[in-house]
Amino acid sequence: EAGVTQFPSHSVIEKGQTVTLRCDPISGHDNLYWYRRVMGKEIKFLLHFVKESKQDESGMPNNRFLAERTGGTYSTLKVQPAELEDSGVYFCASSQGGLTNEKLFFGSGTQLSVL
Amino acid sequence: DQQVKQNSPSLSVQEGRISILNCDYTNSMFDYFLWYKKYPAEGPTFLISISSIKDKNEDGRFTVFLNKSAKHLSLHIVPSQPGDSAVYFCAASAYGNGNQFYFGTGTSLTVIP
């Protein structure tokens, strides 16, 4: 069974540019999450999809961040325009949904560096 | 405001000895707790979990203890092995909170051969 895959693994962009991160969850997983970890800090929640609907986007830093999950399959996270403080590792995670006490399956992350 | 805290950024242990990683939380509504292990350049992988109806859960060399009154949990690894060297994250969630998980800052464990 394929795990959660993220693309690209690394991205280096200049301040003001646009970057789009992609996540393919485990097939059949309804729940998809985006998290971010800034070096040395906690893994911080950004948002949660249930199928194609945004269940909770309370962790999104500001309106420069836009997440989509068309058709309830893969998801994209766009940062436009990128700022220096957006640097960090962006993790995607998925879970099956409909169960109590589920666990999250994480991708390897996208290391974003904004210069 | 951080709801899950791991106050020890790093820990070094001799191979064969016990590793104890600690985690504190502030939200009394949390009822499900997990530990994740992360190697460099990889995503976190699930290690072990515990529900708030229990105070201990064991899986091989790994045991998680939960003290609800103190809002504290710990992960015990015994015996520690060099392959256990990784960053360990504690996470918590509350039933009915839409499956949102809160993570700590991680503890980097080094097991010395």
Give the overall shape of chain A.
globular
Helix content of chain A: under 10%
CATH topology of chain A: Immunoglobulin-like
Number of strand segments of chain B: 11
The separation of the N and C termini of chain A measures 37 Å
CATH-defined architecture of chain A: Sandwich
Question: CATH superfamily assignment of chain B?
Answer: Immunoglobulins
Task: Compute the average pLDDT of chain A.
Answer: 93
Please compute the radius of gyration of chain B using only Cα atoms: 13 Å
Tell me the helix content of chain B: under 10%
Q: SSE string of chain A, helix = H, strand = E?
A: EEEEEEEEEEE
CATH superfamily of chain A: Immunoglobulins
The number of helical segments of chain B is: 0
Largest sheet of chain B: 6 strands, mixed
CATH architecture of chain B: Sandwich
**Helical segment count of chain A:** 0
Describe this structure in words.
The complex is a heterodimer of chains A (115) and B (113). With 115 residues, chain A is mainly beta. Chain A has one domain (5-98): Immunoglobulins (Immunoglobulin-like). Chain A is 0% helix and 49% strand. In chain A, the strands form 2 sheets. In chain A, strands 2, 4, 5, 6, 9, 10 and 11 form a 7-stranded mixed beta sheet that branches. A 4-stranded antiparallel beta sheet of chain A has the order 1-3-8-7, with no helix packed on it. In chain A, β4 (31-37) and β5 (43-50) form a beta hairpin. The relative contact order of chain A is 0.33. The model of chain A has no long low-confidence stretch (mean pLDDT 93). Helices cover 0% and strands 54% of the residues of chain B. Chain B contains no helices and 11 strands. In chain B, the strands form 2 sheets. In chain B, strands 2, 4, 5, 9, 10 and 11 form a 6-stranded mixed beta sheet that branches. A 5-stranded antiparallel beta sheet of chain B has the order 1-3-8-7-6, with no helix packed on it. With 113 residues, chain B is mostly beta strands. Chain B has one domain (4-112): Immunoglobulins (Immunoglobulin-like, Sandwich). The model of chain B has no long low-confidence stretch (mean pLDDT 94). Chain B is globular and about 45 Å long. The N and C termini of chain B lie far apart (38 Å). The chains are: A mainly beta (115), B mainly beta (113). At the A-B interface, β4, β5, β9 and β10 of A face β4, β5 and β10 of B.
